[in-house]
Specification:
Layout (H helix, E strand, L loop, with lengths): L6 E5 L6 H11 L3 E6 L7 H7 L4 E5 L4 H6 L2 E4 L8 H8 L4 E2 L1 H6 L9 E5 L4 H15 L4 E4 L18 E4 L17 E4 L13 H8 L1 H4 L6 E5 L3 H4 L7 E6 L7 E5 L2 E6 L2 E7 L8 H17 L3 H10 L8 E6 L2 E5 L6 H11 L4 E5 L9 H10 L2 E5 L4 H7 L5 E5 L2 H11 L5 E4 L12 H13 L3
Parallel strand pairs: 1-2, 1-4, 2-3, 4-5, 6-8, 6-9, 7-8, 9-10, 10-11, 11-12, 16-20, 17-18, 17-20, 18-19
Antiparallel strand pairs: 12-13, 13-14, 15-16
Length: 457
Amino acid sequence: MDLHNKRVLVFGLGVHGGGLGVAQWLVKQGARVTVTDLKRAKELQTSLDALRGLPIEYVLGEHREQDFRDADLIVRNPGVPRESRFLQIAREHNIPIEMEMGLFVERLPRGMAQVIGITGTKGKTTTTLMTGEILKRANPKTVVAGNLRVSALELLDTIDAETPVVLELSSWQLEAFPPRQVSPHIAAITNIFPDHLNRYRDLDDYADAKAIIFRYQQPGDFIVLNFDNKPLTKLSRGFGKIVWTSATRALSEGAYRDGNDLVWRWNGATHKIIDVRDLRVPGAHNIANALTAIALASLHGATPEQIANVLREFRGAPHRQEFVRELNGVRYINDTTATAPAAAIAAIETFFPAGIILIAGGADKSLDFTELARVIASKVKRVILLDGTATDKLANALPKEIIAGRFDDLQRALARARKIAQTGDIILLSPACASFGMFANEFERGEKFKSLVNSQQ
């Protein structure tokens, strides 16, 4: 569709950058843009400030049915459910519905042939950044975008036919691909654990959403899967070639750990890439992430030397087990993007046996806290709870004596944690829950935590 002078409705602005980037790009295409969001201006202020001065109409605090009937095109934010009644109104009036990722991939010079796509419950951001840095070493044109608070559309002008495009893709962003029946040429699912069960019927439905990333692959395409994650071994096979990774066993082909070596074995050749002790990012989960990045980068043509050099330098992604500072012998770790129990468990296991004062709790995603509670009971000294719709459920799963307080203010929660902590302990923000309620999103929660920690004397 030629977008010049078309009436385009952006359905969901949000504060993560996706709706913002879409609106900016649409204006550049000459579209007549309306943005609608149930949030009010105060809640969207950062996005509205970035759009100030652009010819955009805003409908905030409500959605108007006529906007969905009268548009030439609707671009929905990934956070908007497919089942929204307003989208149904648009369908009844034959209004086309798009997503940012759909608009992006159809405008790539070589389409999905130049895309390396990464999804998963945990580790997709770290793996995306690892892979992107490796491919930039091989080709400086490489673009990294997707679910990273970076608008892919805003990067289109920098992409030519020789540009590798590395995309982190959430399960919601993947919903853009079935209408086109396309998947990335090289794809990966890092793992699948229970998450977003407030949006999906069950774990199988959630796994099926993740599997979109390889569902439409053709012979000659590749899907990288973690053999150590049981749900991935149960996914139905597509046309792409499966490339396995494993941190627990040697493989006849793929990326695996052998003692302290991370190894890539392919087409009869075996390459020792890096000693795990040379990785700068801690934890068994980051060994798995590195193996996936090794496989993806190798399949795209990066050399073992290029891969090793980047992995030796890579220091991790912001807000993911991020070291903030050490004060009076206590280390502070920001793991705010741990919005599901499995992610919080990974953080606890990374830092145990240090004494852990855990700050957890928040908004509900219909997840089970049983296993997290078991891990907390055996490996955490005390838990500080943040208010939210999931916090009662988490508190009820925990031994009462381990709970050191519940707060509706992060500053007071942190003060309580400081009072408990002793030399050698870690104060770990790893909430296991979404952030909505006390914070606009998990990134605001993490930035607030870092600001409070860094302001301490």
